[in-house]
Fold each of these.
Amino acid sequence: MDVLLFFVTAAVALVGAIAMLVSRNAVHSALFLLLNFGAMAVLYLLLQSPFLFTIQLTVYAGAIMVLFLFVVMLLGAEQVEDTPDRIAWQRPLGILLGVGLLGVAAAASLRGAAGQPAPGGEAAASFGNPAELGALLFTRYLLPFEITGVILLVAVVGVVVLNQRGRQQAPAKPPAGD
Amino acid sequence: MEPLQIPPVNLILLAPLLTVVGWASALLLVDVFLIPEGKKKLTGYLAIAGLLVAGLVGLPLWNVSGSTFSGMLVLDRYSLSLTWIFVIVGALSIAMALDYLPRHGIEQGEFYPLIMFAVAGMILLAQGTDLIVLFLGIEALSITLYILTGFAYPRLTSEEAAMKYLVLGAFAAGFFVYGIALVYGATGTTSLAGIAEFLGRQTLVAEDQTLLLAGAGMVLIAFSFKTALVPFHMWTPDVYEGSPTPVAAFMSVGTKGAALAALLRVLAFAFEGVQAYWLPVLAALAAITMVVGNLGALGQTNVKRMLAYSSIGHAGYILLGIMVASERGAEAFLFYLLAYALTNLGAFGVVIALEQQGESVWSIEDFAGLYQRRPMLAVAMALFMFSLAGVPPTAGFMAKFFIFTAAYEGGLGWLALVGVITSAIAAYFYLRVVVKMFMQEPAREVQPELNRGLNADIIIAGVATLLIGLVPTPFIFLAQQSLVALGG
Amino acid sequence: MVPTAYYIILSAALFTIGVLGVLIRRNAIVVFMSVELMLNAANLALVAFARERLNVDGQVLVFFVITVAAAEVAVGLALLVAIFRTKNTADVDEVSTLKG
C-alpha cells in the first residue's frame, strides 16, 4: 500500500516538476509547481512528518505560491522570456551537469542495507510527533530559531526599503545607466 | 507533558554578536521615529558607534573561550579576531557611504542598520560550529546584501545586479541545503564536531563515505559561489559594477572573508579526515581562480570591474592559506585577510571620491593626472595599488609573502609558484593606474570630492597598509595568538 | 515500507530538474521557482534521512530551510516588482522627453 502510494505520488511530483520546467507560460509553471509541492506534502506524510505536511501546504503551497502567482499577474510576466539564450554553451552544459548530478546522487543513494528505513516498533510509532519537534526547536535548535527571526526581520525591512523609495523623493536626475 | 528543559546558554560568548544585532534593531526604530529626513547621516554615525562598541565588548573576551547553544556556537580567539576585522570593515564601509548616499540621491536610513545586520551574519559565520548555523549565517548576510545591492534607485543596473546576485545566491543556497542533507544522511548530525568524530571512527561504511563526500562537495560548491571562486565567479563583475560602490567595497572584503573563514573551519576541522579528497579539488580551484581572476582584470578599463576581478584573484591567494590546514596556513590566512581588507577598502574609497553623480562609467581614464590635482589622493591610491600588487613595503607584500611561504612549507610549492607568477601579471594592471595618475595629463576634468567619511576611510586604510607592511611583527603575533585552541 | 533510497533518488531527480531550470530558463520568475524546487528536493532528502534514522533533527532542519526560502522569495519578488516599476518609469520618461 505504502509502496503504491509512494510511486503514484512520486510520479505526480516528477510530472509537476518537468511540466514546470518546460511550460512557456509562467502561470502554468507556477501551477505545476503547486502540484509538485502538494505531492511533496503527501510524501512527508508517508515519512511520518505530519507537522511538515501542514507547513508544506500552508507556507509553500499556500503563501509562497500565491505570492508567486500574484507577482506574475501583477507584472503581466506570463510570457516574458527575455533574451533567448545569452550564453550558447549554457544549455548543453546545464544538461551535462544535470545528468552528472543525477548519476552522483543515484550512486550515493544506493546504500544497500543502510538504505532500509528503521524497523517499526514503539520508537517508530511515536516518531515525528509535532510536540517532539517543537521541543527540539526551543532547546537544541534555539540559536538557529533566533537567527531565523533576524533573517525574517531583515527580509521585511528589505521589502519595504526596495519598494517604498521613489515615492517620497523624486529622483534628482532622470535615470542614468540603462 | 513535562516542561521544556532549555539548555544553559552562556550569552557572554556571543556578546559582540548580540551587541551588533541589538544595536541594529534598536537603530531601525530610532531611525524611523527620532531621526528626521535629511539628517540620516546621524544614523550612520550611530551605526559606526555600534560596531565599535561591539568590537570593544569583544576585548575582555580575549582569554575566554567556550561553546554554547548545544555546541552550535563557539567563541575562540580565531572568531574574535575575525569579528574585529568584520567590525572594522563594516565601520569603514559606512564611513564611505555617509556622503555617497545623499550625493547619489539614494539616502535612506535603513542602509546603516542593514550593514550592521550583514556584519552580524559575518560574525555568525566566524563563530558557527554547526552546518545549519553556517547556512543561516550565510543567508542572513546574503539576503541583506541583495537588498543593499539593489539600493541605488533608480539605476536599473543596480536592481538588475541585485536580481542576478539573488538568483545565483539562492542557487548556491540550494546546493548548500542539499549538501547538508547528504551529510546529515551519512552522519546523522550537522555539527562540525559530530562530523569530525564520525570520520574519526575506524569502521566507516564505504557507502556512507560516498554520501558524505557528495555532501561535502555540494557544500564546497555553495561556498565557491559565495566567495566567487572560478568557475563560480561569473556574477561578480556585474554585481560589483551595479551595486552602490560602498556596498561593492563591503562585499569584496566582507562576504569573501566571512565565507572563507567558515570554509576554513569546515574543512580543517570537520572534514579533516577526508583531506586527501578535498585538497586536490581545492588546489585546482585556487590555481584557476588566481589565473582567471588576474587575467580577467588585465583587459578592464572600468575600475570597478577591475577591482572585482582583482578580488577574485585575491580569493585564490587566500585559499592557499586555507588549504595548508596548519597553524601556519591559518595565521597567513588571518594576516592576509586583514591586509587585503584594509587595502581594498582604501582603494574603493578613492574610487568613490572620483565617482561623479549620476554616472556609471568608473573609467580608468579618470585617474589620469590625478597627481597634479590631488597629490595626496594620488599617493594614497598608489599605496593601495602597490599593496594589492604585493610590492614592498606595503601590507600586501607581507601578506603575500606569508601565504606563499606557508603554502610552500605545506607542500604546495607549485601553487605558491602559480601565485607568484600571477602576482607578477597582476602588477601590470595595478601599476597601470599608478602610471596614469602620475605620468599622464588628465583626459577630462574630474573633480574629486572628498569629505569627512571618505577622508577617514582613506587615511585609516592608508596608514594601516603602510604600518602592517613596515611593522608586521605585532600583527603576526596577534594572528599566532588567535589560533590557540582553534575549533575548541 | 519504502526504502529510503527511493526517496533519495526522487529527490536527486527533482534537484536536477531544479538545477536545469536555473541554467536553462531565462524568465526570472521561473528561475525562482526552479530554486524553490531545489530547496524542496533537499527538504525531501532531509525528511527521508530523518525517518531512516528515527531522528527528528532532520525535520527541524527542514523547518529552517522553509523559513529562509520564504524570506528569500519575499525579497526576490520585491526586487522584481521594483525592477518592473523602474522600467516603467524609465519608459514614461522617454515618452515625455520625446513629446517635449
Note: Residues 94 and 100 of chain A are 10 Å apart (CA to CA).
Amino acid sequence: MWRGDRVGVAAQSPSDKLGGSVKPRKGASVAKVKASVGEETQPVLKVSNLRTVFRTREATIHAVNGVGFEVRPGELLGVVGESGSGKSVTMMSLLKLLPTPPAEVLSGSAMFGGEDLMQLSPDALRAVRGRDIGFVFQDPMTSLNPVLTIGYQLTEPLRLHLGMSKSRARKRAAELLATVGIPSAEARLDDYPHQFSGGMRQRVMIAMALSCDPKLLIADEPTTALDVTIQAQILEIVRKLRQELGMAIIWITHDLGVIAGIADRVMVMYGGQVVEEAPVGELFANPKHPYTRALLETLPNLKGKRSGKLRTIAGQPPHLLQEPRSCPFAPRCPSVHERCRIENPPLFALAGGHKSGCWLEEKTGGRRAA
Amino acid sequence: MTAAVRVPRTGSQRAPGRRQPKTGGTKVAAAEVSPANQEILLRVDGLKVHFPIYSGLLRRQTGLIKAVDGVSFDIRYGETLGLVGESGCGKSTLGRAILRLVDPTAGSVTFGGKDIASLPAWELRELRPRMQMIFQDPQACLNPRMTVSSIIAEPLDEHLELSAAERQRRVRELMEAVGLNPSFASRYPHEFSGGQRQRIGIARALALNPDLLVCDEPIAALDVSIQAQVMNLLADLQEQFGLTYLFISHDLSMVRHFTDRVAVMYLGKIAELAPADQIYSAPLHPYTKALLSAVPVPDPKLEANRKRIILTGDVPSPANPPAGCNFCTRCPEVKEKCFALEPEWRNLGPDRLVACHFAGNEKSST
C-alpha cells in the first residue's frame, strides 16, 4: 500500500558494493530452508539446565531456572519476555559477564564449538568473547568508551584477537563501518562516540561485534533505545548482513513485532524459564502456552479493527524470591488447574518443532523434551 | 504540577466553590455533543518554544534550539488527541508548554477563555486544577519520602481546604478509581511496582477533577502486559469523568487504539493532523508514511512481504533545521520546491491537515 517503497532502501546503503544486489527478503521460505538444514547439523550453541541466582543481603533472587536451548548455524533465534523474565541474565551467564557476587551460576552447561563455556578458564573465555561470540548491548552510549576514538575501539578486537597490524586493522575497521552503513567511514574513525547519533553508535557496536567474524552474535535489545525509523534502518542492515555472513544470531527483545520480522525461531521466557519455543510462523499462528497467547492478545495492532480496550493479563510478574516449584505463570493463567500450583511443568515437545511448558500439553500428547 | 508558584491564599482564589459546577458541566458536554461540532477546550495558535544555547568563555548566546516551532491545533472536549513523533521532535516540550511548565517564546494557548501563555502567575494558578499532567517515569515523578496518601492529597492540600476526614475520603475514592487498594495508602512508592506507581501518578492528576490531562508517554517505561492495563484504566477514567487527553507517545500502535485524532510531529512542527483511523489507513505526509512503515508488526507473514520505506540518515538538529520543508533532507519523495519553500498547513478534507506541498495531489494512485 505504500508508494515509493524501495526508494529509501536503494538510496540508503552506501555499502552496496559489499553485498552486490540486496535481494528483498523472502522471509518464511528462507527461514524454513535454514531451519531444516540446521536440524541435521550440529548446533552452534547448546545450553542446558542453566540456573543463575543473585544473592543479596535480604534475599536470593532466582533469575534463571533451568533454561535450555540451542542455536543452529545461520539461524536467528529470537528471545522474548518481559523485564525480569531472565532473558538477558541467561545470555550474560553464558559468557560470565555478570558480576560475581551477587550473581552466581549454580549449574548448567553451554556447549560451543566442542567446549563447555561454563568450564573454561577466564583467559580461555576472554579469547572466545569478542572473537567467536560477538555481543551487542542495549545502550550504545554506555557500552562505548567516551574518551577513545571509534577507530581505536573498533581496531582493538582486531589487533587483540586476530593479531592484525595497526594499519591493516584500521583498514578493516573502515570496511566494517561501511558495512553497517556509516557514510565516509574512513574519516569517521577519528571521531569520538559523542559525535555519533544513537543509531550510528548502535551501528558501531554491531560493527565491533562483527569485527572478528564471530560464529555467534548475541544482541541484547539492540534497538530498544532507538526510534522506530532508526530501528528500521538497523533491522534492514541485520537482514542484509545475515545473508552475507551467515552467522547464528540470538536476538533478545521484548518487541514481538521485531521478532516477527527477523527471527527464524522464537523462545518465549517467563519467570526465568523457557515457556515456549517454536519456529516464528508457528508461534504467531498457533501459540500454545497460555502466556504467549495472552501476550499476543494484549498487543495493539496497526491493522484491523480499532478497539478502545485491549485484552490484559491480570496481575504482576513473579518475584522469583524462591525457586519455582509451581508453574510461574499459574497465578495469572486463565486456564490454571490444580497441578499447575504444585508442580512446575517441563517443556513438552509437540509437532512441528514446537515446545511448550504447560501441563495442558501432556493431555494433548506432548512428549517431555529433554 | 503542584509546584506552581505559591501565592498567598485569599478567599476569592480558592477553587472549591467554582470547581463543582464546572466539572458537572464538562461531563454533560462531553457526553452530549456530537463529534462533528465538538466544543473546543484548548486552542494552540502559532506556539513556539525556543531554548537559547550559550557557549564560549562569556556564555554568550550562540544559537537557538527550536524545540517547538510554530504549532497550531485545537483539542475538543472529551476527545483524545494523540501526539506522536520520534525522540527530540519536541512533543514533550509542546505538552509542557501547553500547561506552561515551560514558557512559550511566541504564540498563544487558549484554555477556558484565557491565554495561558501570557497569564500572570496567580491567574494561572487558578487554572491549574483544570489541567494536569501524567509523567513518563513513575519512579522519578513520585517523591520517595512521601506516602501514597500524601502524594495523592498534595494537590488537594494545595488548592482546596478539606477537613482531614474529607481529605482521607477523597484519597480512598481516588485510589479505588485507579484500581489501587486503599489500605495501601500509608505505604511508600518503592513498595509498588511500575504499573502501580503509574496508577498513583494518575490518581494524583485526577485529584482536582481536571478537564484536561496531558499524558507524556505514560506507558513507555512499563512492560507490555502492564501497558495494556494502564491504557485500559485511562480509557475507563475518560468515560467515567469525561476527561480530555493529550496523549503523547512514540508507540504508534497504542496511539491508534486510544485516540480520536493524531498529530504527527517532526522537528518542532506538526507534519500531519488527522482522525486516527484515516491517518493509519491513508497517511498523506511522506513522514507519516515512513513512520508507519517502520513500526514492526507482530505477524511474521505480514512482515515478510511488507514493503518498507526506510528513511536515510538521522533527524537534523533542531538548532539548525533545514531551509524549506523541515523533512526535505530525509524525504523519499522530495522535489526541488521542498528545499526552497516551507509548505503551508493545508486542509485536505474534513479534519485532515497536512504540511506538504505535494500531499493529496496523487490521491488516485494510493
Note: The longest strand of chain A covers residues 60-71.
Amino acid sequence: MQTYFYRLVDAVTARLAGDEVLLCDYAGEVSDFIRFNHAEVRQAGSVTQHFLTLRLVRGRRQASLALGLSGASQTDLPRLHAALEALRELLDHVPEDPYLLYATEVHCSESRELGSLPASAEVLEAIDQEARGLDLVGLYAAGPIYRGFANSLGQRNWHERHDFHLDWSCHLRTDKAVKADYAGTCWSPAELGRRLAEVREQLRTLGLSPRRIPPGRYRAYLAPAALTEILHILGWGGFSLRAQHTQSSPLQRLVEGSARLHPAVTLAECTGEGTAPPFQGDGYARPPAVALVRRGEHAGSLVCPRSAMEFGVLGNGADAGEAPSALQMTAGDLPSTEVLQALDTGLYIGNLWYLSYSDRLAGRITGMTRFATFWVEAGRRVAPLEVMRFDDTVYEMLGTQLLALTRERELVPDRSTYGGRSTASLRLPGALLQGLRLTL
Amino acid sequence: MLERVRRRFCRLAPAVDRCVLRCVEEREQTLRVVRGIAQPVHTREDTGVMITVWDGGGTGYAATPDLSEAGLRDAIARAQEWAWLTRRHQVPALAPPPPIEGSAEHRTPVKRRWTSLTLAERLDLLARESTRLALHRHIVDWSVSLSHVVRESLLIGGEGGSIWQHHELMLPEMGVTASAGGESQTRTFGGYARARQGGLEVLEAVDFHHAAPRLAEEALSLLHAPQCSTETTALLLAPDQMVLQIHESIGHPLELDRILGDERNFAGTSFVTPEMFGHYRYGSPPLNITFDPLVPGELASYAYDDDGASAWREHIIRDGILLRPLGAGLSQARCGLPGVANARACDWTRPPIDRMANLNLEPGSASLGELVRQIERGLYMETNRSWSIDDSRNKFQFGCELGRLIVDGELAGLVKNPCYRGVSATFWRSLVGVGKDQQVLGVPNCGKGEPNQLLAVGHASPPCLFRDVQVFGGD
C-alpha cells in the first residue's frame, strides 16, 4: 500500500499549479473480524478500506476532501484529479484562515511492525478448543493497519502495523463476568489458553453469592483496565491546550494551580513507546514524549498546529482533537502481588464503564463498575459485587485519596473500531485508593 | 454508479443458499465557524459494498471499496470462504433474511436543497449566528456548525430484487461557553439533538436562527445561578433531555440482540428478559412508546431496513406495559419473539445489527404550563450534557445544561449543574405527566456493535413529569 499511496500522491502533486501546496493523509486497513457469542460465531467477515484526505492550500486559504479509495489506480486517479479540481473551486469561495499551519520542513519516516498473524481457521479452532464450556462473548480483529502522510514539499511518512486483538468477556450469569484480552503481533494458541485458564479461575470466585453494599466511600483498588477508563475520559479535553484556553478542560483547576494531584502521579504522551504513528495529519513529527503532569502538577498540554497559531505557542505534534494516543502513567512501588493485602477490606474493581463528567470543570466523573468487581476482606476476595455507581473528582481519586500505584504497569491497547481499528494505547499501573465515593 | 454495481453483481452472484449485496454511497460536507473564524471546509465521499453469503449453515461477509467486476468477484469469494469457515462454529438459527422481491425505492423529502445556497452564503449564515453568540466579554468560546449528509443505499438479492433508498440529513449545532471567576457554563443547541432528515428547511423547523442570543444569555446567567440542591423532588424534563432518557433507559435495554447476549462484551446486556414481553409494567399508564421509521423528517426514517424488511409503526410499550423488543428478523428467529424492522448498519463496512430507528414517546394532553402548575416544589431540566448508565441499562445518572426551580406551580430561578439519578426499572413508573407538544429530535451518534458502529437514531418526545427523583448539583 505504501507504494500505491506514494504513486497517487506523485500523480496528483504533478498537477499542482502556482503556489498551491497539497497535504495528503492516508488511513487504511485490511481487517478480519470474528464476533463471538456463547463461544460461537455471531458474525464473521473481512473489511478492506482506504481513505485519502487531500488538503489543498493556496496562500492562507485551505479546504479538504476525504475520499474513500478503491485501491485500483485506474479508478482512483481520475477521482483524485477531479477532487483536486473540486478543492480548487472551493478555495475561490472560502475566507483566509488566520490559523493555518502545516509542516514546511521536510521530515520523512518509516515505521513497521510486521507480525505473524494466524489464519482465521486457526483462530476459530483455538477458540473452539480453549473456550470450550465457557460463555465467551467478544471480538477478534486482525490484519494490517496503514497510516501515511505525504505533501507536495516532498515529505513522506509511513506507519504500518500487522496485529491482532482478541477482546472478550466470559459470563457466569446475568452481568457477572470476567473480562480479558490478548493482543499482539505474534499469535500463540498456548498464550490464549493460559489467559483463558486465568479467566476460568476468576469465574470460580464470581460464582459466590454477590454482595450488595450501600452508597458511601470505600477503600478500593482500581486495576489497570479500570484506571484506563478514568484516563481515557480525561483525554477528552483534559490535556488539550484549546480546552484549557477556553475554560472547559476537566483539568482546569490543575492547569491553573488551584488544585493538584498526588505527587505519585506523572503522566506523559509517549508516542515513542506506543503503537500510534509518529506523525500527524499536518505533517509534524510527534515527539517521543510530551510531559503532561509531573509529580501531581500540570507540566504541559497537547498542542495541535491550529492551537499553536491561535494561542501563540509552539505545537507538539498533537492531532486536531488534542487527545492523547500513547498516554503513560509512571509506576509506583506497590507490588501487584501485594495488592489484595494492601487493600485489606474494600473493593477490587476490575473494570469501570460508561464514564461521563458530572461536573466537568470540577473534574468530577461518574461511571459504573463492570465485570469482575469483588468485595475483599482481610486480603481475600470473598464475593462478587453488584454493580455500583461512583461519582468522584479526579482530585480525590488521583489526589487526596490515592494511597499507592502498582510497581508493574500494563499496556492497554485501545480496542475501539469506530470507522477503523484504533492505533492508540495506554500504559499504566493499578491504583489503591483510601476511598472511592459510591452513590447508587 | 449504483446501477453498474447492480448489473455486475447480478452477473456474478454465486450459486449459494443466499447472497446479498449492500452498496452505500455517502457524501458529507461540514462547515464550522469557531470563535468567529471559519474552519477549513471539509468534504467526505465514500462508496463501497458489503457482500454477505449464507451457505451450508455458515455465514460470512466481505466489504470492499473496489466496485469493479474483479473487486466484486474477490469479495464474493471471501464471503464464501467465511461462510465455509463458520459452518461448524456458528450461533444457531442464523438463517438468511427472506429474499428481496421486485424493486422498491424510497427518498427523503427535501423542500430546500443544500445547493440552493452557495458555499459563501452557507458560511455567511453560520458567521451571522456566530456573531450573535459572542455578545459579552465573559463569552470565552463559541461555535456554530452545519453538516449535510447524502446517503444512497442499494440492497440487491442474488435473485435480482433490489431496494434503493436515498436519505438526506441536516445536522445543525451551536455552543457557547461563558466564564468568569473560575466558573464556566456552556449552553448548546442540543449537541446535534436537532438533526433531522431533509434539506435547508430543517433550519427553520428547529428555529436555528433564533437560538444564539438565548443560549448566550442563558450561559451568562448560569454563571451566577446557585448550584442545584440535593433532594428528592418532582422533576420536569424538557424534550432535549427526554431524548437521552428514552434512548438509554428504554431504547437500549429493549434491543433484542442485547437481550440475546451479543453485546455483553461491549455495549452491555439488559435488565429486560424475554419472559417480560406482553405483560411487564415498564412504566406508569401515561407511558406509550412507538417504534416508527415512517415519520417524515425524523432522523432515522426509512422504508426498509438493511436486511430488506419493510418498515412499519409498532407500539413497543402501550399504557406502560412492555409489548415487544426492538429486534429484526434474525433476532426474532433466534428467540421466537415478535419484533420490528430494525436491522441497520452504519455504512458499507459493517454488518446490520438490531438498532433503534425512530423510538418516540407519544404525546399526552397537558401543555408545559399545565405540567408546571401540577408541581408545588420541583425542578425543570433542559438539554443533556452528561450521561452514564450501567451495562444492564438500569442504574443511570444524567446531567443537564440548565435547571430551573419550580415553586408553587410556577417556573422560578435558574440553578446550575443540575443532575439526577435513578433506576430504569422503577423510574418510568414515576412518570405522572406527559406533555402534548412533542419535539422531533434525535441522537446522530449512537455507538454499538463489535466491530463498532456509530449510527443516527430519532427520538420524538414531549416534556415529561416524574415524581420523587433524586436530584443534585455540582461541586
Note: Residues 73-91 of chain A form the longest helix (19 residues).
Amino acid sequence: MSSDTHKAHGTGFYFGILLALGVLTFVTFWTARHMETGVFHTPLAVVIATVKAFLVVWFFMHLSDHGNSNKAFFLTSLFFVALMIALIIGDVATRLPTANPNFSAFKEMRGPW
Amino acid sequence: MSDASAGMLDHAPHFNSAAHEKRAAQMGMWLFLVNEVLLFAGLFTAFFMYRFMYTDTFRYLAFVELDWVMGTVNTGVLLASSFTVVLAVQAARAHKSNQVGLWLLATIGFAGVFLVIKYFEYTHKIHEGLLPGSYFSYDLSESIARVKGDPVKMSHIADANINLNNVGNGAPMFFTLYFFITGLHGIHVLIGMGLLGWMAKRAFNGEFARRNDTPIELSGMYWHLVDLIWIYVYPMLYLL
C-alpha cells in the first residue's frame, strides 16, 4: 500500500496551467472592457472565472485524484451557490418595478409603467 | 505505531493505513473549503443583488473609482503564488524539505506584495471618503462632472451603456460590499501567510524529508482557495 497514488505532472505542466490562467485573465479583462457583448457581459465573465476556477481546483488543488466523494462535495456546494444566486436574482428581477429601491432607473430601462 | 514492513508509513491506530489517514485528512479539508465557498457565496449573492438594483451606480464606480490596474496586477500576483505553492507540494512529495520551505517563502512574498497593493487601494479610498454607509463622504456629482469633461472616459462610459443620470443611489452600498468582500478575502490572505509561515518553519526543520507531505498539501489547498475566491472577486468588483 502506497500513498503515492498521484498522477505525475511535471513542473512544465503546472507552468502551462499558470500560463493558461494568465491568458484567461486577459480574456476576462478584454471581453469585459473592450468588447460589445450585450446581455452576455456578466455571464461571460462568470463563465471564464469558472473555467479558471476549474483549472485551479482540478490541477493545482489536485481534486482530479482526490476521490469521487470529494468531487461530489465540491460540485454540490457549487450547485447550491448557483441556486442561491439564481433564485435571489430571479426574485429581484421579477418584482414589481415600484418595489425596487431604485425605481426611477428601472422605469427608464423598462418603459412606461 | 512504527511498522516493521518496508515502505509502510506511520499512521494513527484508528486508520487502516497511512493512505487511509491521508484520504480522511483530504476529505476533512475539502469539507472545510466547501464551507468557505458558501461563506463567500453569501457576500457574492448580496453583491449581485445590489448590483442588479443599482446597475448604473455599481458599474460607474467599478469603471471610474476602482483601479483595474491594481486589481489585475493582484490577480497575477495571486496566480503566481498559487504556482509556487504547487511547487512546494511537489517538493514535499519528493521529500525535499528545504525546497518546500523556499517555495513557501516565495508564496509568502507574493502574498506580501498582494497586501501592499491592497493597502494602497484602501488608503486611497479612505482618503477620498469612498466608504460604506454613513461614512461615505465622496462627492459623486463632482466625479461625474469630471468624467463628463474627459472625452476618453466619456467614450468608455458610452461604450459600456452606463446612464450617468442613474448614478448616485446605492454608492455607499457598493463600498460596503467592496470592503466586506476584499476585507474578508484579505483576512484569509493573512491567515494563509501565517499558516504557510508555520509550514515553512517545519520544512526548514527537515520535517517533510520523512515522507509526510499531507500538511503541505492541505495548507496548499487553503492557499489555492484564497486564489480561487479572488478569481471571482476580480471581474465582479473591478471589471463588470
Note: Chain B touches chain A through 63 residues (CB under 8 Å).
